[in-house]
Amino acid sequence: MKYGPANIDPHVGLFARYLREQGLPVTQQRAAVAEAVFSSPKHQSVDDIDTHLRENGMRLGKATIYRTLDLLVRSGLVEEHDFGEGFKRFEHRLSRDPIHHHMVCLDSGDVIEFRSEEIARIVEETAARHGFRPAHHKLVIFGLSRASRESGANVKYRGITCPIETT
Ligand SMILES: [Zn+2]
């Protein structure tokens, strides 16, 4: 695919502008990685992005994907998440409400987004009480999605059993 001005995703265009400002070449590979992230509202892993690229006939090395994701995060267009799964996830920041929180299903790995005016208010009030000016905050709820619960999944307890003798 050719990335000309006519068929370019406007967000890919913003990334191209960022690259030029940084004195970095706007390559077809970089544009393809950006397009892969921007094409989905999901919180994608590097493997997800790699799969998307392959489905579109592009085979890039993982190193190229990682380096481009790093640039996308630095540009502010993409947010990186570490939900403690042993890999990172990436989401497009501009496509929707930038302030949202996540629920991560420990069984399926599904990520559900939610918003809460009340949490925003609690963050403001708590920070004010400590004379703290909040810049941003993160809230992740771990557990089981409805679908996982309905299929009988359980949260496995991974720590040591009964660490404290109580008798
Ligand atoms: Zn999200």
Topology:
Blueprint: H1 10-21, H2 28-38, H3 46-55, H4 62-75, E1 78-82, E2 88-92, E3 101-105, E4 111-114, H5 117-129, E5 140-143, H6 146-150
Parallel strand pairs: 3-5
Antiparallel strand pairs: 1-2, 3-4
Helix pairs in contact: 1-2, 2-4
Bound molecules: zinc ion.
Tell me about this structure.
This protein has 167 residues and is α+β, with helices and mostly antiparallel strands. It folds into 2 domains: 1-95, Arc Repressor Mutant, subunit A, CATH 1.10.10.10; 97-156, Dna Ligase, domain 1. It is built from 6 helices and 5 strands, in the order H-H-H-H-E-E-E-E-H-E-H. The protein has helices at 10-21, 28-38, 46-55, 62-75, 117-129, 146-150, and strands at 78-82, 88-92, 101-105, 111-114, 140-143. The strands form 2 sheets. It has a 3-stranded mixed β-sheet with strand order 4-3-5, with no helix packed on it. It has a two-stranded antiparallel ribbon with strand order 1-2. A hairpin with a 5-residue loop joins strand 1 (78-82) and strand 2. It is globular and about 60 Å long. The chain binds zinc ion. The site of zinc ion has 5 residues, from loops.
- How far apart the termini lie comes to 69 Å
The helix content, as a percent range, equals 25-40%
Mean pLDDT comes to 88
Q: Work out the strand percent.
A: 5-15%
- Quaternary state reads single chain
> What general form does the structure show?
globular
**What is the CATH H-level superfamily of the largest domain?**
Winged helix-like DNA-binding domain superfamily/Winged helix DNA-binding domain
Low-confidence stretches: 1-6
Under the CATH scheme, the architecture of the largest domain is Orthogonal Bundle
Provide the succession of SSEs.
Answer: HHHHEEEEHEH
Number of strands: 5
Number of helices: 6
The radius of gyration over CA amounts to 20 Å
CATH topology label of the largest domain: Arc Repressor Mutant, subunit A
* Biggest β-sheet description: 3 strands, mixed
What is the strand arrangement across the widest sheet?
4-3-5
Main CATH class of the largest domain = Mainly Alpha
